[in-house]
What does this fold into?
Amino acid sequence: MKLIMILLFSTLIYVSPWYVYFFTLTFSKGNSLNFNPDPLVAVIISLICTPFVTSMIYTTVFNFYKKTGVIIIITTIVMTMNLFGRIVPARSFLYSPFIILFYIIASIIPIMTADYIENFDNVSSLKKIKKRNTIYILLGGFIIGSSFYIFNFPMLTVVFLKLFGLPLTIGDIADNFFMTLLTSYLFIYSIIVSSIFAGFMGLAGSYAFVKSKIFS
It folds into this structure.
């Protein structure tokens, strides 16, 4: 049962951000109607909802398995789906292997850190204390939340591109990446600041899980 749940959790983590993308991505302008959101509103929605939901799901996984390494397996599955579903099909993929390397490293490090922190009691010989366990869960949620941008790369890039009026090349992930993170200092600064805020939203998501007393 728990083996099947790995695939189900992986699918849930991969699909859940799209419920936020429905209200934030700027791909809904037609000849007669324009459902694209205001860029600032889209960023605010993304900053609040994406890390909150993602953190709740990851915290659920942590507490469902209570084993170090399981969440890394799930994240690897999600990363593989994202790579072949969103990044590899980009036209400039073959010319930008750096993006894939960056994506893998930047995704796996926070997950490994959060995995160890939230499962610290399973690898520690210290006596378990409920209050301390809650602190570990919240800290793990903060790490997950603060990594929201890379976890939702490349789709979330579109939301921030529109806010800063930077060029957007549909289907060319490499151009979007290099035109933002590597050329715009204002964009980089905004990602750093928003990641801190997203970290607290991730913490809130973990806290909501704790208060719900799921698996308690």
The chain has one domain: 2-212.
